[in-house]
């Protein structure tokens, strides 16, 4: 400015100069004078800075909750939990899973060292309790989940046994006394298990029917198994679902539909013309269509098919596995119970799990509605109420991701399902169920809207995995109000912004990152668990500054003395 206080440069010229600067330089220049300060906070300037710095597509609008581009830039720069603040080394082997209590005051960790550890989440994290599960013949612990009121912890583990053993168990631990309350068998072990209500949990069992055909039974269990009255059920069968081509049900979780109409963040659906159709509605209004042909029709179709095979008229001659699958499909058409509808038409809860129809590799997501009367162990124990011809339960929806599913997580409002998937090659055909197609090293993070049953936008991508199909393992992801995080086999955890679909941070470990977990009360705190046997706590730069500002400062004399010694 000149001596009279008049700017020497017009605002428009200062604006053009600031456009060529980076964000830090713009803020530094804004300290020079009032004119530059005003220009440095210009909304159009920070919109350009935002799109350029974060490399967001120009057709993506600003976050609906944002009030200015400057504040939105600051949110992504300052509130992402990317600063390592603590490393926990209490586990002696690979840490496989992390879960927070709903209050955020505690979290649990599971490990190959066969312990479940419960931690206090204060400014400095401390260990509250460690439960050793080896006395119960467990090989390792793999998953945990707090019930709704944080009074009980579900812990899932794998039994000791041969390499191909698939048996596991679920334990319920009291968070008041840390006592083990009950144990429930779980097969296969990677069903994991989950809470349905505050005192009831879902487990699985697997029954082999043929070489590559089986059925999965999902059970509802009372967390308190020591009921004195023999008239009170402690377990009830929820669903019985047919598995074809060596597939099984795994990774069960429950989505509460009550918040679908008031989501924390509304995401736009992808363009149907450019995105593949992955979601199939199996629960139409026509019950005959859902249930399949009547039993007589199924038997007639089966007889004609078998006649052609036996007479050699089926060309090409089907293999034993193809024949087994065909017979199982035809039998199930007449013995599958159609999806049950709510009397009021309102959704209650969805049971979500990985499954498949072509190979043992989990490549589909099954969705089954749970109605209010099914959320209690009261009533028939073994499904006595259903007709004798209804062996299996039909699914409501199926999501086909055309790849190996290695992780799933729900948004806090339960409306959006995030899925880690390693894609099959385009056009891949599964000729043998025991030989699935090769899978990509890149992990796609897909997003599905459970209210509209549509895929949302494009897949997020940055993280990688390297193991082949038969060695592939689950990588747990987590979703907060604004962010989604995931582990990876490339020794990093990753954080993306849910609205802008951009990767914001890479969090380094010394080995595979198996699990991540946001604090449900504070998304600026993230935990990561790794094969390097550590758990790391990460906070945002903003919270780190706040905590440092609240620490007592040394007295002036000692500060001067310390400076003299340096």
UniProtKB/TrEMBL annotation:
Give the top-rank taxon of the lineage listed in the UniProt record for this protein: Eukaryota
Entry's Gene Ontology cellular component terms: Cul4-RING E3 ubiquitin ligase complex; cytoplasm; SCF ubiquitin ligase complex
Which terms does the UniProt entry file under GO BP? Answer: protein ubiquitination; regulation of cell cycle process; SCF-dependent proteasomal ubiquitin-dependent protein catabolic process
Whether Cell inner membrane counts among this entry's keywords is no
Repeat listed as a keyword: yes
F-box domain location, by residue? 9-49
- Keywords tagged on the record: Cytoplasm, Phosphoprotein, Repeat, Ubl conjugation, Ubl conjugation pathway, WD repeat
Q: Which Pfam families match?
A: F-box-like (PF12937), WD40 (PF00400)
Q: Where are the WD repeats?
A: 88-120, 506-538
* Annotated metabolic or biological route of this protein: Protein modification; protein ubiquitination
Spell out the subcellular localization from the entry: Cytoplasm
**Family note:** Belongs to the FBXW5 family.
Any idea what this protein is called?
F-box/WD repeat-containing protein 5
Give the organism, scientific name.
Cercocebus atys
According to the entry, what is the taxonomic lineage of the organism? Eukaryota, Metazoa, Chordata, Craniata, Vertebrata
This protein's encoding gene? FBXW5
């Amino acid at each position: 400015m000149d001596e009279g206080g008049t700017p020497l440069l017009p605002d428009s010229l200062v604006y053009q100069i600031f456009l060529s600067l980076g964000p830090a330089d713009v803020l530094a220049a804004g300290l020079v004078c009032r004119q530059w300060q005003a220009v440095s906070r210009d909304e159009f300037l920070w919109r350009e800075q935002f799109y350029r710095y974060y490399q967001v597509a120009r057709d993506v609008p600003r976050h609906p909750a944002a009030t200015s581009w400057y504040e939105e830039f600051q949110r992504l720069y300052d509130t992402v939990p990317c600063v390592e603040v603590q490393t926990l080394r209490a586990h002696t082997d690979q840490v496989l899973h992390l879960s927070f209590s709903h209050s955020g005051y505690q979290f649990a960790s599971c490990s190959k060292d066969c312990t479940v550890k419960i931690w206090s989440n204060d400014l400095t994290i401390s260990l509250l309790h460690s439960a050793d599960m080896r006395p119960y013949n467990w090989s390792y612990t793999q998953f945990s989940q707090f019930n709704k009121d944080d009074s009980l912890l579900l812990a899932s583990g794998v039994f000791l046994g041969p390499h191909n053993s698939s048996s596991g168990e679920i334990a319920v631990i009291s968070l008041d006394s840390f006592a083990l309350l009950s144990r429930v068998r779980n097969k296969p072990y990677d069903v994991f298990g989950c809470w349905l209500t505050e005192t009831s949990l879902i487990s699985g069992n697997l029954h082999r029917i043929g070489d590559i055909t089986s059925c999965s039974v999902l059970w509802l269990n009372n967390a308190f198994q020591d009921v004195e009255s023999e008239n009170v059920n402690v377990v009830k069968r929820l669903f019985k679902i047919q598995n074809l081509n060596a597939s099984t049900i795994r990774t069960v979780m429950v989505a509460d539909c009550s918040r679908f109409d008031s989501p924390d963040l509304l995401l736009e659906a992808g363009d149907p013309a450019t995105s593949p159709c992955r979601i199939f509605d199996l629960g139409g209004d026509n019950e005959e269509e859902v249930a399949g042909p009547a039993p007589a029709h199924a038997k007639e179709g089966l007889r004609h098919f078998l006649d052609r095979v036996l007479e050699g008229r089926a060309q090409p001659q089907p293999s034993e596995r193809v024949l087994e699958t065909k017979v199982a499909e035809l039998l199930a058409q007449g013995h599958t119970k159609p999806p049950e509808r709510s009397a009021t038409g309102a959704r209650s809860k969805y049971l979500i799990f990985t499954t498949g129809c072509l190979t043992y590799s989990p490549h589909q997501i099954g969705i089954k509605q749970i109605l209010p009367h099914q959320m209690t162990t009261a009533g028939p124990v073994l499904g006595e109420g259903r007709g004798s011809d209804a062996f299996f339960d039909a699914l409501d929806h199926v999501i086909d991701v055309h790849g190996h599913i290695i992780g799933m997580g729900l948004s806090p409002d339960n409306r959006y399902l995030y899925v880690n998937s390693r894609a099959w090659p385009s056009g891949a055909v599964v000729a043998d169920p025991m030989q699935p197609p090769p899978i990509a090293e890149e992990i796609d993070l897909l997003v599905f809207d459970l209210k509209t049953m549509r895929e949302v936008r494009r897949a997020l991508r940055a993280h990688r995995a390297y193991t082949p199909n038969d060695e592939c393992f689950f990588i747990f992801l987590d979703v907060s109000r604004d962010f989604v995080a995931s582990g990876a086999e490339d020794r990093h955890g990753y954080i993306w912004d849910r609205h802008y679909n951009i990767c914001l941070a890479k969090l380094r470990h010394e080995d595979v990152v198996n699990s991540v977990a946001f604090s449900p009360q504070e998304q600026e705190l993230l935990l990561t668990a790794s094969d390097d046997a550590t758990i790391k706590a990460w906070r945002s730069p903003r919270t780190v500054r706040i905590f440092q500002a609240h620490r007592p400062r040394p007295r002036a004399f000692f500060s001067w003395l310390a400076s003299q010694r340096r």
